[in-house]
Structures are given as C-alpha cells and as structure tokens.
Amino acid sequence: MRKLGKKISSIILASLVLTLGLSGCQAKSNQTINDKNKETLVISTHEFVEDTFRKNVFTPFEKKYNVKIVLELGNNINRLDKIREKKNKADIIILTDYFAMQGIEEGLFEKIDRKNIPNIENLYDIAKEPLGKDYGPAHTIASYGLIYNPDKIKEPITSWSDLWKPELKGKIGLNDIKNAGGPFLLLIAAEQAGVDIKKDEDKAFEKMKELSKNVLKFHEKASESINTFSMGETVVMDSYSFEAQSVKDNVSQAIRIDPKEGSYALMETVNVVKGTKNKELAEKFIDWILSEEVQKAQALDKVDSPTNKNVKLTPKESEDVIYGKDSIKKFKTVDWEYVNKSMKRWTERWDKEINPKGIK
C-alpha cells in the first residue's frame, strides 16, 4: 500500500493490467496451454504497487498451488460498485474496512470458514475479526495521520488542532468525505469541538466548516493529494502511514506524524465474494496473505505493515511500517456500522456545507 509518488504514470498503466503470472504479452504457446489447464483465481484489489504484490504474494501463490491469478484493479469505490452491479467476476476482494463493511451489510460476501484459515490465530486481536467473525480478517493495518513540510511552516505540526491555525489558510489538502479518510475527518472535527458525533452532529459540522477555510483541495485520490503536496501547493496533508515513503520520494524533508490525540486505524480486509465457485481456493489465498513469510516480505519492502504477530523485524526493518503490539494498541477504532448508516446524510451535508462546489 505505497510508492505512489514518482510513479503516477505507472499507476495509470497498472490499472490496465488485468492478468498476472504471464512472462509478457507475447507468451509462448505452451505457456498459454498450461495456463488454460490451471484453476483461475480472480482477485479484486488496488491498482498500485502491483509489482511488489506480484513478487511477494501472487506469483509465489501461483507456483505453490499451480493456479493462475487474474486481477481486477481499481479503487475501493469502483471495485465495490462492480460487485454491486454484478459486473465483477472476482472470487476475492481486498478492501479497506470502511468499504468492506458496506459489502457485508449488502450481503455481497461469503461467510468464511476459519478452520480453513489457520493463520488467523496468529494475528493481533484487532485484525482477527475487524468486521465480525464471519468475514475476512485484516492482512495489514495503517494509521491515519498527517504529513507536513517543515520548510514551509513556522511551527511543527503535533496535533489535529493545528489544522485550524489561521496561518495554514489555503495550504492544506484533505480527503473528501467519500474516501476512507473522509469520515475520520468528521470524527476528528467532533473531537475538536468537544462533542460525541452521535449526540451532536451539528457542532461537528460547524467545526469542519471552520477547517474547510484552510483547505485548498479535498481530494478524490491519494495520488492527487501527493501530487499537490509534492508541487508545493499544499504544505500539510492527511495521510496513511503507508504513503509516507511515497511522499518523501518527492519531498525528502517531509515529516509524517500521528497526532498527539491519537490516530485512527485503517485496516485492509480480505473477503470472499458471494457466489464464487472457488471458495476453498479463496480461503487458501487468505491464509497465504496472512502467513508469516508473506507478511514479512511485504514489511521489508515497506508495502504493508504486518498483522501477523509472529513476524519479527529489526529496528531498521521496522522503519516506516507499523510494527508490534505496543504500536497497534494505541490506535483508535471506528464504529463503521454507525458511520455507514450515517454516510448518506453526512455526504449530503458535506457537499452542501463543507465543499459545496464538489471536489475543489
């Protein structure tokens, strides 16, 4: 879940690539015949860092189980919509917890058989059943925090409250409400207003409206947010921990922080799509992506933070990833069921009160 910065064009190209495991476009005829004889597993996943996932996750799984993996690539919203519209033939879907909860509530996923996924027992508790015991575990975890350019601000950013400072007017880039990070912002605004959003939604929106005056852009995509920051149009942006290195690739002095009030956990879940004919193979894949071997490889490449507690990393290896129970236990979690029930109302209010012209 990283390395967006200098490779935005390759991200666009990656979204056109739907099949893994082939040595090139001009595959040899005997390879094509072999592939036709293999069982196929279709995985709906994110369109970035495809090469690293291929190396650490997909290709080794193909070799171990003599299968062919085909990818459906895109962002959370588009891929979930394809399943809703039955335009996606995926067996497995990888989604952040916010979007995965929507799929669960809409009956789009199969209930998993945990006996077929023994590596679940090796996960930190927060990752074992983030959305209920019948559905997919979290294969990685990220924190939602802030990145700032210390060369362009007077004081270091340490708190969520710093976003409201007058000197940051027009210098901040944030997620739109429709993105996974959007609901976090509204919850943070409620905290800064000193209210429980479930009891006083109006004050949360009032506080968020104040913050919107400092916002140059509300972004639809992480790549847009990173580009704007990299070009110096913004000096502060909200971000996930997995984006830190991508930003630093372009702005080496950038600093990422988890604000002193605490950060929210964003978990990436792996679920089996309703109606698949490959449920057993899909559960083998889930067990595979949770394995110590795969999780460590992803951590060493700074792509995913491990949720398997058996993964051991040196201090150097653990830089730029979330590692260990002490780090994980500090995270705040979200009542996604409540958030999803509120999103239609929140989105309407957001588009009217916070960002009335749509995405800036």
Automatic annotation (TrEMBL):
Gene Ontology cellular component list: outer membrane-bounded periplasmic space
Secretion signal, residue range per the UniProt entry: 1-27
InterPro entries listed in its UniProt record: SBP, Sperm_putr-bd
GO biological process, one term: thiamine transport
Signal keyword on record: yes
PROSITE patterns: PROKAR_LIPOPROTEIN (PS51257)
Protein name, entry field: Spermidine/putrescine-binding periplasmic protein
Organism, scientific name: Gottschalkia purinilytica
